[in-house]
């Protein structure tokens, strides 16, 4: 027994035999296992060295090469980690590290990335790609150059098609009510026509473009924002502040640029139908087709109908005007060598709009039997872009539009035709380095004719014809990776007013991580007014229109400071703060005088100056759980100074706010809550005896929507105007006597107070600050073939 044990022990040392004695089978098996174990350990030690300390350093950048700050960097399988600094640099030390490490890079708004490190690592250069929620928008409105929004020296606000789907509306005009600092303003309680107020300035001070072309003229501001199927809209860009250096007259307060999709990017077929409990029906249809390998076309049709007159406030007038509108939009795109652009688009809009006393019908147009306002509108537009086949980068842009309007306002008949032709040739050399040049020449022709004294003369009718050639140049300097400067100058030769110069300066600063950006702009703008195409009050027939001398062009100087800050490492998600302050001073401001004579509107250049100043802030939050929220506030003061008398502008709020909250509640389900709030406005009264309030109350329009998405379908519905806010029933003065039959006038036109008219009022529908349309339900569906 002792010998066996001794033999076994010796066999474990590696000997198969001891002095000729035989080892049993158990000893033999143990010997084999020992050999295998020792061989494995020897091989493992030769393949993997002993752990040792490891230092890994490098830099995290975005796809543009800029450093990405706040990236969480962790070594998989360990508790070791760190964060990148503002330049994207990082250093991590791993004690007793293996030869192969896996390092994980994560940050909200970027796709996660894992890097494997072996041997003696060199400095890492890690590129993170932004997620869709953080991809930088491309903008063109600020400088006529296609640049990312973060690189634009001009502050441009971008609103996607998804933003507008949160509160579906029949037109972009109504959808703009959820943009901070922008307010769709109704100008008449009867026909409900309106314009866009931007930072407190009326519609004529805002230029409306489609695909960068100024196809919208003063006669048709609201029609430029109606009739475009929203499924064909790529985005809407808003620039606040003068843009006359690039776009000429009318871009004094800012511009709204509706960018439609390229035909190749649209759905093969789409339809969106929505109806409301008030009987409104809106239908959008889109269709894309290809003609050969290089030509693509998209066709969009919009139809809106409302034919159920309502008088919920009991004033005897329709609460909102009846409308029957159809619009056809067709855009073509041609693929060309070297990515040269060739697009062409056409649009036609027809609208029949009618409002007035509940018993009014089209057979009473222009008569004094029943008061009503009836507007027939026919409008066509052609516009496009063509890159010339030349070695240098020359681009031709053009637009043509014709607008015909046949309107009656009580017994006043207004018939007008307007034609606008615009052409622009730009030169953009492909320079490299710190300089970027853009130069161009432009020509704009405006022909206008109507049946008023505006185009009349002693010898008969004399239509207006305005020629406006111009040239502009802008130079973009990249002073350093963090500093940019844009200088621009435009020269126009107005056939009525001679030479006009409009300079601009824009400066942009950003930090290393591009998450903090400061923009400063100084610019000059000008505008030549046409009262009858811009101010609905001049056409209603309720007052006589008077011009106090020849109207001179308005001019303005603006200073705008914008600060944008993105917070990526906030726990709930990505927070974007966008704050702006502005100051604009106007000379030769043209304002209507409602107070001197209650029966007249007197237009004249202001013998003094006007000011629009204020501040705004937007906060956008994109949370990791899919919730998005946006809130914005604007404080503004718009006033005139004449003979040392300071007076606030009518129908202009001092404070306003907007918000939207989008919450995914389950797979395919989403709830959208949107709204706005407006502070008091000064309202136009008819004299010191007018019993109506001189100020509007605080009011808010709020909307709630629920959506359910399927693969190709989306069903939606909700409530508009949740608080059921409407103006008071006495908004229309003397609605019971629209033809002033029982009003007594003095020889100078002043109204005589009588027992039947103790407040010395006349019929007046211009006391309007909000829609008479109350709470209503809506439901709709969308379907698309991609």
Key words describing this protein structure:
single chain, 786 residues, mainly beta, Immunoglobulin-like, Ferric Hydroxamate Uptake Protein, Chain A, domain 1, 4 domains, 22-stranded antiparallel β-barrel, 4-stranded antiparallel β-sheet, 6 helices, 6% helix, disordered N terminus, receptor, membrane
What does this 3D model show about the protein?
The protein has 786 residues and is mainly β. The chain has 4 domains: 2-47, no CATH class; 52-127, Immunoglobulin-like (Sandwich); 142-257, Beta Complex (Ferric Hydroxamate Uptake Protein, Chain A, domain 1), CATH 2.170.130.10; 258-785, Maltoporin, Chain A, CATH 2.40.170.20. The strands form 9 sheets. It has a 22-stranded antiparallel beta barrel. Residues 1-26 and 31-50 have low confidence and may be disordered. Residues 150-254 form the TonB-dependent receptor plug domain. It is a multi-pass membrane protein. This is Outer membrane receptor for ferrienterochelin and colicins.
């Amino acid at each position: 027994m002792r010998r066996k044990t001794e033999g076994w022990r010796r066999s474990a040392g590696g000997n198969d035999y001891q002095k000729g004695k035989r080892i049993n089978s158990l000893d033999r098996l143990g010997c084999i296992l020992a050999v295998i174990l020792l061989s494995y350990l020897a091989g493992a030690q030769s393949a993997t060295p002993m752990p040792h300390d490891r230092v890994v350093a490098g830099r995290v950048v975005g796809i543009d090469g800029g450093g990405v700050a706040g990236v969480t960097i962790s070594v998989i399988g360990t508790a070791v980690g760190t964060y990148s600094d503002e330049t994207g640099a990082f250093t991590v030390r791993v004690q007793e590290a293996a030869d192969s490490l896996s390092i994980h890079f994560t940050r909200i708004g970027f796709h996660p990335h894992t890097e494997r490190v072996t041997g003696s690592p060199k400095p890492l250069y890690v590129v993170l790609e932004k997620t869709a929620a953080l991809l930088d928008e491309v903008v063109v409105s600020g400088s006529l150059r296609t640049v990312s929004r973060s690189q634009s020296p001009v502050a441009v606000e971008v609103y996607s098609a998804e933003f507008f789907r949160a509160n579906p509306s029949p037109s972009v005009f109504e959808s703009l009510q959820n943009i901070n600092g922008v307010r769709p303003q109704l100008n008449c309680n009867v026909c409900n026509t309106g314009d866009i107020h931007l930072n407190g300035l009326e519609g004529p001070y805002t230029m409306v473009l489609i695909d960068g072309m100024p196809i919208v003229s003063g006669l048709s501001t609201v029609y430029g924002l109606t009739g475009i199927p929203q499924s064909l809209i790529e985005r809407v860009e808003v620039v606040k502040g003068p843009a006359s250096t690039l776009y000429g007259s009318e871009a004094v307060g800012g511009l709204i640029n509706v960018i439609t999709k390229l035909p190749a990017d649209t759905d093969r077929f789409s339809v969106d139908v929505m109806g409301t409990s008030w009987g409104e029906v809106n239908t959008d249809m889109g269709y894309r087709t290809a003609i050969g390998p290089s030509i693509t076309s998209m066709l969009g049709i919009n139809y809106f109908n409302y034919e159920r007159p309502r008088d919920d406030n009991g004033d005897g007038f329709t609460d909102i005007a009846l409308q029957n509108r159809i619009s056809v939009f067709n855009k073509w795109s041609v693929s060309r060598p070297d990515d040269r652009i060739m697009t062409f688009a056409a649009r036609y809009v027809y609208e029949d709009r009618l409002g007035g006393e509940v018993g009014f019908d089209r057979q009473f147009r222009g008569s004094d039997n029943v008061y009503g306002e009836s507007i027939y509108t026919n409008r066509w537009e052609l516009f496009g872009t063509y890159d010339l086949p030349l070695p240098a980068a020359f681009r031709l842009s053009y637009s043509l539009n014709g607008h015909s309007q046949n309107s009656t306002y009580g017994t006043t008949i207004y018939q007008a035709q307007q034609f606008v032709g615009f052409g622009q040739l730009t030169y953009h050399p492909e320079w490299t380095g710190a300089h970027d040049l853009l130069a161009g020449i432009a020509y704009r022709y405006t022909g206008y004719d109507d049946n008023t004294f505006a185009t009349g003369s002693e010898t008969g009718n004399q239509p207006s014809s305005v020629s406006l050639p111009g040239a502009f140049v802008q130079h973009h300097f990249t002073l350093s990776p963090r500093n940019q400067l844009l200088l621009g100058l435009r020269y126009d030769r107005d056939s009525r007013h001679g030479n006009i110069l409009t300079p601009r300066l824009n400066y942009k600063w950003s930090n290393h991580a591009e998450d903090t950006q400061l923009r400063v702009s100084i610019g000059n703008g000008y505008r030549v007014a046409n009262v009858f195409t811009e101010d609905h009050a001049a056409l209603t027939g309720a007052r006589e229109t008077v011009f106090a001398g020849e109207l001179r062009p308005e001019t303005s100087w603006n200073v705008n400071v914008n600060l944008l800050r993105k917070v990526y490492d906030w726990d709930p998600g990505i927070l974007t703060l966008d704050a702006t302050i502005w100051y604009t001073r106007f000379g030769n401001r043209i304002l209507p005088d409602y107070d001197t004579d209650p029966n007249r509107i007197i237009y004249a250049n202001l013998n003094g100056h006007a000011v629009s100043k204020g501040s705004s802030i937007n906060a956008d939050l994109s949370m990791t759980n899919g919730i998005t929220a946006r809130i914005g506030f604007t404080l503004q003061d718009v006033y005139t100074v004449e003979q040392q008398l300071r007076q606030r502008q009518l129908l202009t709020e001092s404070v306003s706010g907007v918000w939207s909250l989008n919450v995914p509640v389950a797979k395919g389900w989403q709830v959208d809550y949107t709204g706005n709030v407006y502070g008091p406005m000064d309202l136009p009264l008819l004299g010191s005896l007018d019993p109506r309030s001189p100020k509007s109350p605080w009011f808010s329009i709020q909307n709630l929507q629920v959506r359910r998405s399927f693969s190709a379908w989306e069903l939606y519905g909700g409530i508009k105007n949740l608080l059921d806010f409407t103006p008071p029933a006495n908004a229309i003065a003397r609605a019971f006597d629209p033809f002033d039959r029982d009003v007594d006038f003095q020889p100078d036109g002043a109204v005589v107070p009588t027992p039947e008219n103790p407040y010395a009022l006349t019929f007046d529908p211009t006391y309007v600050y909000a829609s008479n349309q109350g709470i209503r339900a809506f439901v709709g569906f969308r379907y698309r073939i991609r």
